Amino acid sequence: MIRVRFAPSPTGYLHIGGLRTALYNYLFAKQNNGHLILRIEDTDRTRLVDGAIDSLISTLSWSGIEFDEGPHKEGNYGPYTQSERLDIYHQHTIQLIKSGNAYACFYPKDRLETIKSKNIPSEIVAEYDTRFRDLDIDESIEKMKHENHIVRLKIPSKGSISISDTIRGTIEFDLSLLQDQIILKSDGFPTYHLASVIDDHLMNITHVIRGEEWVASLPKHALLYQAFEWDMPTFVHLPLLLNKDKSKLSKRQGDVAVEDYKLKGFVKDALINYVALLGWHGSDNKEIYNFGELFDSFSIDRIKSSGAIFDVKKLIWFNQQYIKNSDSKALLNLISQMVPSEWNLKIEMIDLLKDSVETLNDFQDHLNSFFVYSPMKISSDNTLFSDSIYNFLNLYKEALSKHNDMNPNLFKDLINQIKENNDISGNIWKPIRIALTGSEHGPDISNYATILGPETCTNRIQSFLDLNVN
Questions:
Q1: 314: closest CA among 244, 362, 256?
Q2: Range of the domain at 120
Q3: Could you report the per-residue pLDDT of 29-68, keeping only the tens digit for each?
Q4: Are residues 173 and 203 in the same domain?
């Protein structure tokens, strides 16, 4: 069975790049009737953020990505949080030392503090640690019981290693350029390299689909697999996500957390659709995919190796398309939770506005004038408003008051009749918009007025005239 994993660190909110990795793993697993596992990699204790695990799980659930196993869903390969697996890592570390593939390095407490306080470069520390490389194995294991230590993987000082990646082909690494990698830290926690290899093997992971930033770690992981005499999974390293200037996507140039876009009113399906296209494209080169179409079309073979640019303007375009084509009733239910509870939203309001908004959050500003009206004070030098226009508004108000119902055709017919019968010329549409909405801009005014109804329109015009006509 195909088994893949998404393995975030709980160091903050879910990154857009993390969402893409989770999505690609999810699509690949479901296409192959496989399992997707959520594993929490929390071995770097200095970077943990309180509440981050719950936030990650909540955001992934919101996105529609479903896991078969994980901290929140029982499975046969747990625990699924690495800090709960320390005994497993310690046992395997001892196994590596006994087989001659790793060695312990012993540190008095003052040396540990010196390394940290003086920020001594890792290559200098690694060079110092080679003195422990050939320490007697039994002596090392005994000393580990009562002395501060780290454990390093023995990396051959010469030669090369070749590793296959589904996207990049065969990659060759010069082992002489690598220093002996720390695999167990002085706090007793494993580094990513040791923990991920052990967990991927013990959890029967068949494909490791992760970001390109881990390509440089491949030789270390391959050596660990060799040391344990385990078969390696298939590796798939996804292209980097880039800012528009081709730098690596980072918060310095804009929002990178999925939660940020959720709070800004981006539609889940629009975000998933756009993220899916960051490095992958279907054979038909179309852009709009629902989840079902992604299941049918996604293929690892069509993932590019070059970096993908994250363009917020393009994401906004996707969001607009999804809002425009969303069922208005579903939108109404969503937006009702985002606006004041006393607002009595109507589906006609959503129909009128959904073509003109970029995000769900925009609806509140656009809906505001339906429920909150402040007549605009017109300055004496405003050429839009003449005595003739004020007279028209008064006549129009009186005509509206005779009707109980409104529709766009009636709204326009009444305007045309009054203009013709009273020989009124000039721009009447902008003044009537201002009188009804309190703003110069907005959606189609005939549909807007229809939603307000004759009584509200009459009252608003009267308020406008009361403010502006002496």
A1: 244
A2: 85-238
A3: 999 999 999 999 999 888 888 999 999 999 999 999 999 9
A4: yes
Q: Which two tokens stand for residue 438?
A: 């309190």
Contacts of 331 (CB under 8 A, 6+ apart): 323, 350, 354, 360, 363
- Residue 443, in any domain of the structure: yes
Strand partners, 185: none
Quick one: tokens of 288?
Answer: 């709009």
Specify whether 89 is located in the same domain as 187. yes
- Residue pointed to by tokens 């050429």: 383
Look up residue 68 and give its two tokens. 């078969």
- Give residue-wise pLDDT tens across range 300-334: 999 999 999 999 999 999 999 999 999 999 999 99
Q: Confidence band (pLDDT; 50, 70, 90) for 427?
A: confident
Q: Is the dihedral of CA 31, 322, 21, 277 positive or negative?
A: positive
What pLDDT is recorded for position 221?
A: 98
φ and ψ at 170, to 5 degrees? -85, 130
- Could you tell me the pTM of the whole model? 0.91
- Concatenating the DSSP letter of every residue in 15-28 gives BHHHHHHHHHHHHH
φ/ψ of 440, rounded to 5, equals: -85, -15
Q: What is the mean predicted confidence (pLDDT) over 449-465?
A: 96
Last residue of a domain, one of 238, 254, 276: 238
From residue 464, how far is each of 384, 420, 437 by CA, in Å? 14, 23, 10
Which neighbouring-strand residues pair with 209? 236
Question: Which range (105-114, 334-343, 374-383, 397-406) has the least confidence?
Answer: 105-114
Under a CB-based contact definition with an 8 Å cutoff, are residues 191 and 224 in contact? no
Residue 426 lies in a domain: yes
Among all residues, which ones are annotated catalytic?
251
